[in-house]
Amino acid sequence: MEPIELLEKAKQARALSYSPYSHFAVGAAILCKDGSVYLGANIENASYPLCMCAERNALYHAYMEGKKKEDFVALAIVADSPRPVSPCGACRQVLSELFPQKAPIYLGNLAGEKEETNIETLLPYAFMDEDMK
Ligand code: THU
């Protein structure tokens, strides 16, 4: 699947966002080796700290269907942002443990701008399970 297609899936996921507080809808899509795609959108709450980002929802969605780190090929994230949307710090920490370090992460916006990165670049020196041994 081409990056543009995965970004389109993330855009479709974005339509499912529940974001009445920030009015900032985000969509994410994870492509797996078997061709399956798992979607996530941000889901907010009147108790603001309970808001959950699109990236983590997509990742947890995939894990709940039995997928694991080694099954993932790529992640795409889309929002209506002035530059391709970049994952928050909390999502970077979660991705650094549950998503392959070098797998492409496509950042996009509704203007059609896109960038490619990976979690190794987005979160260098991540705190990992090895740090507790
Ligand atoms: N948000 C995401 O879903 N992903 C990001 O990478 C950045 C922020 C959500 C959280 C909240 O619902 C809204 O965007 C505003 O921060």
Q: Which features would summarize this protein structure in a list?
A:
binds tetrahydrodeoxyuridine; globular; Cytidine Deaminase, domain 2; 5 strands; single chain; 133 residues; alpha+beta; five-stranded mixed beta sheet; 28% helix
Helix coverage percent: 25-40%
What about the largest sheet? 5 strands, mixed
Shape: globular
CATH class: Alpha Beta
The total number of structural domains is 1
Helix/sheet category: alpha+beta
Oligomeric state of the chains?
A: single chain
Bound molecules: tetrahydrodeoxyuridine
Number of helices: 4
Mean of the pLDDT scores?
97
| Percent in strands | 15-25%
N/C terminus separation: 39 Å
Order of helices and strands: HEEHEHEEH
CATH homologous superfamily heading: Cytidine Deaminase, domain 2
So, CATH architecture? 3-Layer(aba) Sandwich
The total of beta strands comes to 5
Cα radius of gyration in angstroms: 14 Å
For the biggest β-sheet, the strand order reads 2-1-3-4-5
How would you describe this structure to a colleague?
The chain has 133 residues and is of the alpha+beta class. It has a single domain, classed as 3-Layer(aba) Sandwich (Cytidine Deaminase, domain 2), CATH 3.40.140. It is built from four helices and five strands; from the N terminus they run H-E-E-H-E-H-E-E-H. The chain has helices at 3-14, 54-64, 89-98, 119-122, and strands at 26-32, 37-41, 72-79, 105-109, 114-117. The chain has a five-stranded mixed β-sheet. The mean pLDDT is 97. Residues 19, 22, 24, 26, 42, 44, 51, 53-55, 85, 87-88, 91 line the site of tetrahydrodeoxyuridine.
